[in-house]
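Hey, quick one: can you model this chain's 3D structure?
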Amino acid sequence: MDLSAQAEEYLQMWSRLHINRPTTLRKAPHKAVLLLSVIDLIEEGVIAIPFIPLCDLLQHRFDANWNQYVKFKGRFDCSLHHPFYRLKSDGFWQLVPRPGEPERPSPPGSAKALKERYFGAEIPEPLFRILQDPGYRHVFRTLLIDTYLTPDPGLPGMLIAAEGLLGIAMLLVAGA
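Sure thing. Here's the predicted structure for all 176 residues.
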């Protein structure tokens, strides 16, 4: 299979990421922010092989991208461990466990627990080669931003405001 056919296959996968869509109608941005962070580090040469290490540089880039792209935080928190673990369900992300760490059915509850269980993740060599190409990187970035990080234009501004009011109301009720 040539590179363009493989790129199309991965674009299809990335356009259908398994994401949390809470009742607020907003898509959880975590996986898109993580993948943007991986693309950035590949572009900079920090990630030079198809292995994504669990390292401080990845965490810092994730935090920076989160702050850049996630304008409405709502119930979403800036946590790398959720998407890093859960990308394994999307068909192109293989977790690399630490030696002697048994596979557990539940996801790690923190970044520390994630690092204790896993060295990082591997992506397929063809996907890595695709992400090394500036043109393909642009296409993949655009897909992630447009699909997962841009507010739905059909979502009225009043609904966005209502989401904020709903959150305040829930806090007031919980405190009562």
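One thing worth noting: The two ends are 61 Å apart (CA to CA).
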